[in-house]
Design a protein that fits this description.
The protein is an alpha+beta fold. The chain has helices at residues 21-43, 48-60, 105-115, 123-131, 148-159, and strands spanning 81-87, 92-99, 120-122. The chain contains 5 helices and 3 strands. Belongs to the Ntn-hydrolase family.
C-alpha cells in the first residue's frame, strides 16, 4: 500500500568529498535513515513539521553532511550553523543563524517559530535566548562539531590546494 504522503530530502549539493564506494554507501545509508525516521513520524500520525524536523535532525547528527555535526568550518576553524523551518499553511517560520553550540539548529528554529514572536535570531545572543526556553537542549561544546573531513577541507583551503 502506498502512503498518502511524500517525504523528500537531499543531502546537499557541494563538492564530492572523497567519494568512493564506502563513502557513497555511508551517504546512502544516512539518507535512508533520515527518510525512514521522518516517514515513521507520519505513519504514527505526526505532523509534516514533526516529520521534517526529525529527518533534518538525523542529517544534522551525521558527520557526513554540511549540517550540524558535519558543518563546514569557517576561516577561523569554527562552525556557524543556521536552520529555517516554515509552516506554509500557518504562514509562519522560525530561523537561527550563526549558532555554534546548538546541537540541532532545526529544533531551535522550530522553537523560535512556535514559542516566540521572532522569526530569526542570530549568534551568541541567539544561543543565550534559546537557553531561556525550557524546551531547548543544553548547548554542546564546539568540539562536538569538529570532524576530520571538515578539518582537512579547511587546511586544504587555507593552503591553497583543493
Amino acid at each position: 500500500m502506498n502512503p498518502d504522503y511524500s517525504l523528500i530530502i537531499h543531502g546537499g549539493a557541494g563538492e564530492n568529498i572523497m567519494l568512493n564506494t564506502h563513502v557513497t554507501g555511508v551517504i546512502e545509508f544516512a539518507l535512508q535513515t533520515a527518510l525512514t525516521l521522518g516517514s515513521k513520524v507520519l505513519q504514527q500520525g505526526g505532523t509534516s513539521l514533526d516529520a521534517v524536523q526529525r529527518s533534518v535532525e538525523a542529517l544534522e547528527d551525521c558527520f557526513i553532511f554540511n549540517a550540524g555535526k558535519g558543518s563546514v568550518l569557517n576561516e577561523k576553524g569554527k562552525n556557524e550553523m543556521e536552520a529555517t523551518i516554515i509552516d506554509g499553511s500557518a504562514r509562519r517560520s522560525g530561523s537561527v543563524a550563526c549558532v555554534q553550540r546548538v546541537k540541532n539548529p532545526i529544533k531551535a528554529a522550530r522553537l523560535i517559530m512556535e514559542k516566540t514572536s521572532h522569526s530569526l535570531i542570530v549568534g551568541d545572543g541567539a544561543e543565550e535566548f534559546l537557553q531561556g526556553l525550557e524546551e531547548m537542549e543544553k548547548p554542546v561544546v564546539p568540539e562536538y562539531f569538529l570532524t576530520d573531513i571538515r578539518q582537512k577541507e579547511l587546511m586544504a583551503k587555507q593552503s591553497g590546494s583543493k
